[in-house]
Request: fold
Amino acid sequence: RQKYIKNPPEGMTPKLVKDMTDSDLLDMHYFMIEDDDLDDDEWEKGFYIDLF
Reply:
């Protein structure tokens, strides 16, 4: 919570973050970090099907 209060996501204020429920805060955090792996240029290790 303190991390997002000090540096709120775009479109939010520290007060909005402070007043969020724990559940809402966890949901926001999940969606904020969800695409972090997609920012890397490296492919994920795993099984991929090439359709082309």
